[in-house]
Amino acid sequence: MHVHILGICGTFMGGVAALAKAAGHRVSGCDSNVYPPMSTQLESLGIELIEGWDESQLSIGADVYIVGNVVSRGNPLMEAILDRGLDYISGPAWLSAHVLRGRKVIAVAGTHGKTTTTSLLAHLLERDGLAPGFLIGGVPDNFGISARLGDGEWFVIEADEYDTAFFDKRAKFVHYRPTIAVLNNLEFDHADIYDDLAAIRWQFHQLMRIVPRQGQVIVNADDQNLPEVLAEGCWSSIAHFSTEHVACDVSVLPADDDRNVRVVSTNCDAVVSWSQQGPHNRANTAAALLAASKAGVPVARSAPNLASFAGVARRMQRIAVGGGIEVYDDFAHHPTAIRQTIEGMRDRAPDARLVVALELRSNTMKQGVHAGVLADALDGADRIIVQAELATDWDVAAAFSALGDRVSVHRDAQSVFTTITSDLVSGDRLVLMSNGAFGGMSRLVADWMSKTNG
Description:
Radius of gyration: 22 Å
Structural class: alpha/beta
Strand content: 15-25%
């Protein structure tokens, strides 16, 4: 089968492309942003890439066109596909039919922590010899790739609640038919497609509706919104995890050293080495341990493998060090994730001056939905540098005014970079926070660090 993927350079669609190629299909694709690193990754797999959306691409004669949710009506290629009555399908639907069918699927859902939890879970299954397949919205350092078919019966997938395609407004995760569904947490996000938290909760309820009776729903017992999801209906066995108490199936609690955690379950009570930081990552760890146990790997056997988890690119990834300064790149873009990242850094380096550079980039951020709580989320940082180039419909300066002279607001990446490089001193920890490119900030700062300390 020849598949042509519209929007191939997105993380999810790029993963679909890699899986399709590994499954033996001929794969080509197009996007408006065909550039490294995704372009080089796909080209290395022998996937033909085309820049743009010109309808002349139909001459390649694909059997089916896989449509990413970046594509909307008015896209010239999509309009030509519709006019000619050609076969098209969404990425999640194609994945369900051609990759997930016949596999035991573990779907990791939630507002926060999906990528880290999915990556850690895949690592735990891999270490136990189960050779899982996976599709992750990031690149786990233990694997170096975001997707693979795997040789085992299990397939681990990051289960996004964002909509599927312009012709299918259900959440992506309803296509995955999981045997095990992990519910990390639930908060309001994606204001561009959901009106309120109730609308997102309804999508999570649809996920509950497709988990089989003999399946498993794994729930964060510390989250205040998930009980409402379960109250709307759950037909599967439920297991709970926690970072606050031991009255759960799996708990991951602080130990006396932040390089360790205490893991508690029915067959385990041990202090083990841990590669992550912060309470949010303890929750991710508990979820992964519990999911692995339901896939047949006892917690006592998985727990020692936490130490060998190398993390995920752009999830508190240290990208530069020198001159007494450490620089981290992080995907945090929701107030809760921002606060948790700051708390985690404080745990690791309590005496360091913490500098945070934040790009207001997500659709929810750009609309100012979180304007009333952002200052509080950032309050744990000593210095805050904000890029607000895309946030044009609300008073950004007023929203951050409570932070006083600790904060500065900028309209472009160059101004942020200039401020960072003039502001940093030995002993600082800098965290770059964005769910996008941030104007190449991570590369700019890493290059500057290399030249300064070379």
